[in-house]
Design brief:
The structure holds two protein chains of two kinds.
Chain A (H helix, E strand, L loop, with lengths): L3 E16 L16 E17 L3 E5 L6 H8 L7 E7 L2 E4 L12 H11 L4 H15 L14 H12 L6 E5 L7 H17 L2 E5 L3 H7 L2 E6 L2 E7 H14 L2 H10 L8 E9 L3 E9 L8 E6 L2 E5 L3 E3 L2 H7 L7 E7 L6 H7 L1 E5 L17 E3 L1
Parallel strand pairs in A: 3-7, 3-8, 5-6, 6-7, 10-17
Antiparallel strand pairs in A: 1-2, 1-4, 8-9, 10-11, 11-15, 12-13, 12-16, 14-15
Helix pairs in contact in A: 2-3, 2-4, 3-4
Chain B lengths: L2 H11 L2 H14 L8 H21 L9 H22 L2 H4 L1 H5 L6 H29 L4 H31 L2 H16 L14 H8 L1 H14 L5 H25 L8
The chains are: A alpha/beta, B mainly alpha.
Chain lengths: 376, 264
C-alpha cells in the first residue's frame, strides 16, 4: 500500500469568544461583567496540496499563520469547514510531547500511559519500555514519580516514547528541543531515522535551515491562506517576501531566530571615523549569493539610515579571501550627521547591515576590527 | 451500526488506554498521602457507620428497620457512582482536549475513562458493603444476580447520558455549574437516608421521588439484594429512559463527533 495525503481546497473556521469591553483594548472593572460574543473566524483557507510516497513537506509561516491548525486538520482533530482531506496510511502526530503524563505516576507507568494514549497495546509497550527508558537516559529513575523529573527530562521521556513507533505519515510541530547536547545528538539521529522511515512527513517549523535540509517541498502560510506550495527553494523565496513585509519587530525576531533566512552575509567593518558633521564606515561585504552589497544600512541611536549610493572599492585581499577574480567588495559609506555622536556609545550600538535590496538585509557585520573609533 | 457503537466497539477492542489510565487515576491520587489507599475506603466508612448510625438514631430505629445501615450504605455507594459520572461528564471532552488535538478522535474513550474510574471506586467500596450486609441485613443470594443485571442497566445509562452531557458541556460549560449544585438536592430526594415506602405515589414528595431517575436506577440495583420491593413504574421508567438515551446518544454522536473539537 502506498501512503498518500491530499488536501482539496480546505478551509477551517472556528468559533472565537470575544469579550466585549465597550472600548477596544480598554477594560475597566464594570466591563469585566459584560458577556462574550462568539464569532466565526477563518483560520485556514485555500489549502491545496498533495503529498505522495517519499515527500517531506515543510510548513512555513510567521507566528499565528496557522501552522499548528493546519497540522490539526491533517491529523483529524479539526474537521475542515469546507474542502476534503484524503489520507491513506497510518498517521501519527507528534505535536505535544507531554501528552497524557500523570504527575504522581512513576516514570515507567507514564510510558504505558503515554504509549497507550498513542494507540499502542499494553503488550507492545512491555516489550519496548526498557528501550524507551534507555534512550531517555532515565533507566535508573524508572520507579521515581514523574514530578521529580526536570522539564528537560520530561521532554526526553516524551520524545523517546513518541518516536518509539514508525508511522507511515508523520506530522510534526517544530523540532523538539530537548535537553543536553548528548541527548540532542541521539534525538537528531532517531528523528532522522523516523524521518527516513516514514513515507510522508509534514513538518511545521520556524527554522528555514531545518526545512531546507530536510524537506523537498514546502507550503507557505500567510495569515491562514496558502501563499505557496512547491519546491523548498522557491517556497523560501515566498516566505522571505512575507517576512520582509511583516512589521520590523516580527522581521527582527524571525531573523534572529533564523539567520539563514536572509542569507549569510560575509564581511567585516574595518574602520569607523566620526567627525563633527559626518560618519564614515569602511569595510567589505558579500551577500549569500556571492554578490556585491547593493544597500548598506547603518543603525544607531534608534534610527536606520539606508544608503544606496556609496563608494565601492576594489579590494585584492578580499577577492583572494573569497576566491573571486573580480568585483568591488569593499565599501566606504559616509553619512552626514545632524548632531555629533558620542564615540563610546556609537561603538556599542552601531549595526552595519548590507543586502541586495532594502528589504533583504543580512545579519549585522562584525565590528571586531573597528572597535576603536577615530575622531578628530 | 452508528458511529457511536462503532467507536464503542473499538474502545472495547482496544481498552488499554482508558482502562489503564483510569486505574492509575485512582491509584496515584492516594500516593502522596501517608496513609495511601486507606483514604479510598474512608468516605464509605464515614457514610455507612458515621452518618448511617446517626440517621438510624434520628429515625428512632423502628424494629422493622434493622437493615437501615445496609440500605443507606448500598444507596450511598451506588449514588456516588452515578453522581461522579454525571458531575464530571460535562467537562469530559475539555479535560482530554490535548488528546483530541493530537488527533485521537475516538471520543468514547473520554467517556469511558471517567466512567471506569467511578466503577473502580465502586468496586473498592464493595468489600465494605459486604461487611455491612452480613452484619445488618438478610441478603437474598438470588437477588445478587438481579442486582448485577440492574447494575448493567445503570452502566448503560451512565454511558449514554454521559455522552450526551459531554457534548452539551463542550458547547455549554454551564451544565457543569448546574449539576454540581443540583446533585446534593438529588441525593436528598433519592431514598438513601430514608425509605421509598415513606413517599407514597399520591403525595407531592412521592411524585418528586418517582420523577427522579436516580431513584429508579438505584432501586434496580439495591432492591433485589435487600428484598425491597420494586414498583412496576420503575421498570417502565428505566425502559423508556434507556431506549431514549441510546437513540439520542447515537444520533448526537454521529452528528457532532467530528465537529465538537471546534467548540473547545
Amino acid at each position: 500500500m502506498t501512503a498518500m495525503l491530499r488536501a482539496y481546497n480546505v478551509s477551517l473556521e472556528l468559533p472565537t469568544e470575544v469579550h466585549k469591553t465597550g472600548r477596544k483594548g480598554y477594560s475597566d472593572l464594570l466591563a469585566t461583567l459584560s458577556g462574550s460574543v462568539r464569532y466565526q473566524t477563518t483560520i485556514l483557507s485555500g489549502i491545496n496540496f498533495e503529498a505522495v510516497d517519499g515527500d517531506r513537506i515543510g510548513i512555513m509561516g510567521l507566528n499565528g499563520a496557522g501552522k499548528t491548525s493546519l497540522l490539526r486538520v491533517l491529523n483529524g482533530a479539526y474537521a475542515p469547514t469546507a474542502g476534503v482531506i484524503r489520507i491513506e496510511g497510518v498517521r501519527q502526530s507528534l505535536l505535544n510531547p507531554l501528552l497524557g503524563f500523570a504527575e504522581y505516576a512513576s516514570v515507567a507507568e507514564n510510558i504505558f500511559l503515554r504509549g497507550t494514549a498513542m494507540g499502542l497495546r499494553y503488550r507492545q509497550l512491555k516489550a519496548i519500555a526498557p528501550d524507551v527508558l534507555e534512550f531517555a537516559g532515565l533507566a535508573e529513575r524508572a520507579e521515581y514519580p514523574l514530578y521529580t523529573l526536570s522539564s528537560g527530562q520530561r521532554m526526553r521521556l516524551g520524545f523517546a516514547i513518541t518516536t518509539a513507533v514508525q508511522p507511515d505519515i508523520l506530522l510534526m510541530d517544530e523540532w523538539l528541543s530537548t535537553g543536553d547536547a548528548a541527548f540532542v545528538a541521539r534525538a537528531r539521529k532517531r528523528m532522522k531515522d523516523r524521518f527516513e522511515g516514514s513515507r510522508i512527513v509534514v513538518l511545521a517549523s520556524h527554522s528555514t535551515s531545518l526545512l531546507r535540509d530536510t524537506c523537498n517541498k514546502a507550503l507557505v502560510l500567510d495569515k491562514g491562506r496558502m501563499h505557496f506550495f512547491g519546491a523548498t527553494a522557491d517556497a523560501l523565496e515566498a516566505y522571505r517576501d512575507i517576512v520582509s513585509q511583516a512589521s520590523s519587530e516580527e522581521r527582527d525576531a524571525a531573523m534572529s531566530s533564523d539567520p539563514v533566512l536572509f542569507g549569510n552575509t560575509q564581511g567585516v567593518v574595518e574602520r569607523i571615523r566620526a567627525t563633527r558633521d559626518s560618519l564614515e564606515v569602511v569595510g567589505w561585504a558579500m551577500d549569500d549569493r556571492g554578490r556585491e552589497a547593493a544597500v548598506v544600512c547603518l543603525e544607531f541611536a534608534g534610527q536606520k539610515h539606508l544608503l544606496e549610493s556609496f563608494e565601492r572599492v576594489q579590494r585584492d585581499d578580499v577577492n583572494d579571501y573569497v576566491g573571486k577574480h573580480s568585483g568591488k567588495y569593499g565599501f566606504r559609506v559616509s553619512l552626514a550627521l545632524e548632531q555629533p555622536v558620542v564615540a563610546s556609545e556609537l561603538v556599542k550600538e552601531l549595526e552595519v547591515r548590507v543586502g541586495r535590496n532594502v528589504s533583504r538585509l543580512g545579519t549585522p557585520l562584525s565590528l571586531v576590527r573597528a572597535s576603536v573609533i577615530e575622531t578628530e | 451500526m452508528t458511529l457511536l457503537f462503532r467507536h464503542l466497539a473499538e474502545s472495547f477492542r482496544k481498552p488499554d488506554h482508558w482502562l489503564y489510565a483510569s486505574w492509575l487515576d485512582v491509584i496515584t491520587k492516594y500516593r502522596k498521602n501517608a496513609l495511601g489507599l486507606f483514604w479510598i475506603f474512608f468516605p464509605p466508612i464515614v457514610y455507612i457507620w458515621g452518618l448511617g448510625l446517626f440517621f438510624r438514631a434520628i429515625r428512632g430505629a423502628a424494629p422493622e428497620e434493622t437493615g437501615f445501615l445496609a440500605h443507606m450504605g448500598f444507596g450511598f455507594i451506588v449514588f456516588r457512582l452515578m453522581s461522579t459520572v454525571v458531575m464530571e461528564a460535562g467537562s469530559n471532552f475539555n479535560a482530554y482536549l490535548p488528546y483530541i488535538y493530537e488527533g485521537h478522535l475516538r471520543l468514547t474513550d473520554y467517556v469511558l475513562r471517567p466512567l471506569s474510574r467511578a466503577v473502580i471506586y465502586f468496586l473498592f467500596a464493595v468489600p465494605l458493603l459486604v461487611i455491612v450486609l452480613v452484619g445488618d441485613a438478610p441478603v437474598l443470594p438470588l437477588g445478587i444476580l438481579g442486582a448485577i443485571l440492574g447494575f448493567a442497566i445503570v452502566l448503560v445509562n451512565l454511558f449514554v447520558y454521559g455522552v450526551l452531557l459531554a457534548f452539551m458541556g463542550a458547547r455549554f460549560p454551564d451544565i457543569n455549574q448546574f449539576f454540581s449544585s443540583v446533585m446534593l438536592a438529588m441525593f436528598l430526594i433519592t431514598p438513601i437516608v430514608w425509605y421509598a415506602k415513606d413517599a407514597p405515589m399520591d403525595t407531592a414528595h412521592g411524585m418528586l421521588m418517582r420523577a427522579n431517575p436516580f431513584h429508579h436506577l438505584l432501586a434496580v440495583v439495591r432492591g433485589p439484594v435487600l428484598g425491597e420491593s420494586i414498583e412496576p413504574l420503575t421498570y417502565s421508567y428505566l425502559g423508556v429512559m434507556t431506549v431514549v438515551g441510546v437513540m439520542l446518544a447515537s444520533l448526537i454522536y454521529g452528528r457532532l463527533a467530528k465537529r465538537m473539537s471546534a467548540w473547545l
